[in-house]
Design brief:
It is a single chain. This protein has 10 helices and 12 strands. It is about 40% helix and about 20% strand. It starts with a helix and ends with a strand. A hairpin with a 4-residue loop joins β3 and β4. It folds into 2 domains: about 200 residues, 2-Layer Sandwich (Ribosomal Protein S5, domain 2), CATH 3.30.230; about 160 residues, 2-Layer Sandwich (Alpha-Beta Plaits), CATH 3.30.70.
């Protein structure tokens, strides 16, 4: 069944491009869920995401006239560049991608036609935008003959995100999408950009539950939180809050979250390596409390989901991503995933009147070229 659905996605992209003759190539870029370590990447601290089995899939073919046409099957919308008028918000990353690649390849780089389909929920905190931008960079670089390594792809996608959205995001999402590894989490050192794969215990699963409230990052206090972190670092006299001590930030809740979260990430990695899911889960709960109380980016809905997940038997749970809505992530015994998902969604629906969506995710390899099997 899954293979049939996947084949159907390739067919839908070919249909959108009116091409079944084999001239279309495909790129996929996964979304990510962050197990622990949020609002730390822009302070050079560690975080621990996994690339997930939900992705942005792009079918594309080159053009010789320098023009670019992109269609989103999910939004039923298209953009053609150069555009005669202002382009829609969803298509701004396309324009920024072209600007980046043409800076590298020169003004005469060729264009392309592309069709896009995504299984990463938009506004969920699972990095649908980062996956979109990583996929676009791969497509545009391929067509233009520009060679980029994994780190360059991630940094390009980050730059495109900042330019397109105005949100001063860190690089965690893009690195996770590019560098994902099957059955592993990724310990990202966001200062050096070093990546250390960490095996996930085979008897533990990852459950994501969408709160039914969409995250609005560009309209959120994300930029304010980042500015507060930078101000705290300057006040202490360090370049990054990564280099601050707990004592130095004891009276600053925003900075305190970053410093204590740093320690929690490393403790969580130790717990995974020891296959201590109970300890890992406790650190997730502590992380959520810090994001809720010190960093103030949670919502009542996310808080309820965390409480319900733990009550239903999860080892631990926390909001994932920037907060302000979207999803929580829970660590659950693999043979209890379905039972926990059912218990949480039924109670949440009854208590809030909102419609949640719970689904297990697995860690997958990072972005690259693909095709129907």
């Amino acid at each position: 069944m899954a293979r049939t659905r996947e084949s159907g996605r390739f067919d839908a992209l070919r249909d959108a491009l009116d091409d079944h003759g084999g001239g279309v190539r495909f790129v996929r870029a996964p979304g990510r869920v962050n197990l622990i370590g949020d609002h730390t990447d822009y302070q050079g601290v560690w975080c621990l995401p996994i690339a997930i089995d939900r992705d942005v899939l792009v079918g594309f073919r080159g053009r010789t006239d320098g023009r670019v046409r992109v269609r989103s099957l999910d939004l039923d919308a298209s953009v053609e560049l150069p555009a005669a008028s202002e382009i829609a918000a969803w298509a701004r990353p396309v324009a920024e991608t072209l600007a980046f690649v043409r800076d590298r390849a020169g003004a005469d780089s060729p264009g392309f036609d592309a069709a896009i389909a995504s299984t990463v929920p938009i506004g969920s905190g699972l990095s649908s935008s980062a996956a979109f931008e990583v996929a676009l960079v791969l497509v545009a670089a391929s067509v233009a003959g520009v060679v980029l390594d994994a780190t360059e792809i991630a940094l390009a996608a980050q730059e495109i995100e900042v330019r397109a959205s105005g949100v001063p995001c860190g690089v965690m999402d893009q690195l996770a999408s590019v560098a994902g590894r099957h059955d592993h989490a990724l310990l990202l050192d966001c200062r050096s950009l070093e990546i250390t794969p960490v095996p996930l215990p085979p008897d533990v699963g990852v459950l994501v539950v969408h709160s039914g409230t969409e995250r609005q990052l560009a309209g959120s206090a994300y930029a304010e939180r980042r500015a507060a972190c930078e101000a705290a670092a300057a006040r202490i006299g360090v370049a990054w809050l990564r280099d601050a001590t707990v004592e130095q930030v004891a009276d600053d809740p925003i900075a305190r979250h970053v410093v204590t979260e740093n320690a929690r990430v490393l403790g969580f990695v130790d717990a995974l390596r020891a296959r201590d899911a109970v300890r890992a889960g406790a650190l997730m709960v502590e992380s959520h409390a810090s994001l809720r109380d010190d960093f103030a980016v949670s919502t009542p809905e996310l808080d309820v989901l965390v409480e319900l997940s733990v009550a239903a038997g999860a080892f631990g749970a926390r909001l994932t991503g920037a907060g302000f809505g979207g999803c929580i992530v829970a660590l659950v015994a693999r043979d209890r995933l379905e039972a926990v998902a059912t218990a949480v969604t039924e109670r949440y629906r009854s208590d809030t009147g909102l419609e949640p969506d719970a689904f297990a995710v697995t860690a997958v390899d990072g972005a690259g070229f693909t095709g129907p099997s």
